[in-house]
Amino acid sequence: MCGISGIFSNVITEQHQVLIDSILKSQFSRGPDAQAKLTMQANHSQAILGHNRLSIIDLSEQANQPMWDTTHRYCISYNGEIYNYIELREELVRLGYQFNTHSDTEVILNAFAYWGISALDRFMGPFAFALVDSQTDHIWLCRDRFGVRPLFYVILNNILYFASTTKELAKYFNVKPNLSYVAQGLKYLVYEDGSDNSAYEKIISLLPGSYLQAQLNIAGTLSFKMSKYYDLEINVANQAHILPMNNTNYMLELIAHTLENAVSIRLRTDVPLALSLSSGLDSSSIASLVSQTHANPIGFSFGHPNYANTEGPLIEKCAKFLNINMQYVWPTADEMIEGLYKTIEIQDAPFSSLSIVAQYLLYKKVNSCGIKVLLGGQGGDESFMGYKKFLLFWVQHLVKQKKYIAVAKNVFQLLPMLFAELSSIGIYWRHRHRYLNHKQHGSTLTLSESTSLNLTSNNLLKRQMQDVTQFSLPTLLRYEDRNAMANSVESRLPFLDHRLVELGLALPEAFKLQKGYGKWPIREIMRDKIPNQIRLARYKRGFDISIHSLLKAGLGQSIRSTLNSNKQCINEFLKHSIKIESAFSDKQLLQRQHAMAEAITLLWLINKEINHAYMDH
Questions:
Q1: CB 55 within 8 Å of CB 34
Q2: 185-198 burial by CB neighbour count: b if 16+ within 10 A, else e?
Q3: Which candidate, 457, 484, 462, places its Cα nearest to that of 372?
Q4: 222 pairs with which residues across the strands?
Q5: Do 171 and 177 form a contact (C-beta atoms < 8 A)?
Q6: Are 272 and 55 in contact (CB under 8 A)?
Q7: pLDDT (tens digit, 9 = 90+) per residue, 104-142?
Q8: Chain segment 379-404, per-residue pLDDT in tens
Q9: What is the DSSP-derived secondary structure letter of residue 200?
Q10: Of 373, 269, 275, nearest to 59 (Cα)?
Q11: Residue 458: exposure state from Cβ atoms within 10 A (0-12, 13-18, ≥19)
Q12: Cα 267 vs. chain centroid, distance in angstroms?
């Protein structure tokens, strides 16, 4: 992964140069290995491209960016990885194209030169790039199918500005935080919803699976259009049409083969890589496949192998089973408190819980061990119905179909899961507003009303697709991208291989939901490959964070002190007569739903860089 930036205009000014310099500086951790900018002249336009490089494939200087193709017509600034670059390169060589590097960047340039914009359909992997055609005064901004890599832009006065991050653009245009974005996040815990909204007004997020094409004419007028090159629903429907639904063994073999290939092509790297390992099915499955080809891989986990109240002991069991050398992250309370403020800074947007801080500290550990690439399990729950809610939706579906025998069977199979989740019932109840379109009560903040998310739970496939495109995955990907890039680590996610996502969504619901479990096909293909204690686990846990211990160590006092010291900045966001000491007391932070998320939101709003517009206003 890297950081990209640029401006497309009829004239590049000194002010534009300063802006790109500031973006390059702010995006340093996204690409500490090389930073460069290039100003180019076309017929009626000029462009400046900036690039921060995290060297992963072809570590030579010749592979640095911005990069021209061999004909000096196309120039690119690119963030991401094209995992099938070897196969594409071989095909392009047969077609007569020459290469000066072994990078995937040059593969994109030559692929674009031959196939044009349709080359996007051939790329496997996450990407966000800007590509300029110096002959036709065109620029394309392109983003991968699921929006794994970020790309933001602003169009103003016939000038296109873009970057991988929003902070410097927000300063430059003196724009305010997007309070509707914040309100939606507090209500649903969904910040990124698949739309073009960002955490700032007027800064647009390029839609996943889309590209923006812009052109400047001789009069300096910028014309542009947004196009969609990937349609998840159509691809899933096509996949479902050709699947032999009655051939269980074939489908299991197809899933196993697709997952194995998704993992293997993500092992292509010229730098050290490691695994993010939890006690969950998805990361353990990836670890199992990697351990078959890599002797003694390194794993990283948030937990402690000797503390039964963490994932550590079970992860240790899995690591021994797979011969993985583990590195455990178990920070002190002071490190967690310090990490909270750092995470607020690097996320450049609000987040909902301290688990995001834990993720940041895990990536920090990965960086300290000299690892540049980390494989993780993100995406498996969305593609293969891993969330418990789908088991309940399935029962609801069977009731509507009046299949009462099947209802009774499924309810009986759900009992072990319900018993395993008894300790979490209170949490699920407090989060019920995420699935019901009613207002949340008890908030201390006054923000613009968020739009209601269109929850379509009466159709399981559509509801599952919404998790991929709106309700779950986009927000989780934002968290992961910012935390990984703040520590100069590239995250790779085999379960988000588009072939595997399409296959998982296309499978019959009854195939994915069996015996009171979600993700049943993955559990089957992992038989004897990971410990059954993980493969058949009923309880799903996240990062083990004791908020009570953190409050005892001073987290609440630190939050209240910071809020009180900057109260003038946040008064307009607090409801009348709200007292910080009472609204964010240790008891409230521990017990009141969304108290921590509201505190994090306020801390973000008073951050001096993020709150730039309000400070000046």
A1: yes
A2: bbbbbbbbbbeebb
A3: 484
A4: 216
A5: no
A6: no
A7: 999 999 999 999 999 999 999 999 999 999 999 999 999
A8: 999 999 999 888 787 777 778 777 76
A9: B
A10: 269
A11: exposed
A12: 19
Strands 46-53 and 3-9: antiparallel
Q: Are 180 and 525 in contact (CB under 8 A)?
A: no
Residue 392's CB: how many other CB atoms inside 10 A?
16
Side-chain-side CA neighbours of 462 within 13 Å: the count stands at 6
- The structure's pTM equals 0.93
List strands edge to edge, sheet with 3-9. Answer: 34-41, 46-53, 3-9, 159-163, 152-156, 204-205
Read off the amino acid at residue 394: W
- Which uninterrupted H or E stretch holds 14? helix 14-26
The structure tokens listed for 421 are 């989740």
As a residue count, the chain comes to 617
Sign of the alpha-carbon torsion through 531, 536, 539, 540: positive
- The dihedral through the CA atoms of 439, 444, 446, 447 has a sign that is negative
Cα atoms in the 13 Å half-sphere on the side-chain side of 196: 15
Neighbouring CB atoms inside 10 A of 14's CB total 7
Q: Residues 489-522: pLDDT tens digits?
A: 999 999 999 999 999 999 999 999 998 899 999 9
Helix (H) and strand (E) counts in the chain: 28, 17
Dig out the tokens for 496 from the structure. 């988000």
DSSP string over 533-565: HHHT----------HHHHHHTTHHHHHHHHHHH
Q: How many CA atoms lie within 13 Å of 187's alpha carbon, on the beta-carbon side?
A: 22
Q: State both tokens at 397.
A: 């579906």
CA distances in angstroms from 250 to 245, 253, 515, 522, listed in the order given? 9, 5, 20, 14
Using alpha carbons only, what angle is made at residue 495 by residues 486 and 51, rounded to the nearest 5 degrees?
Answer: 35
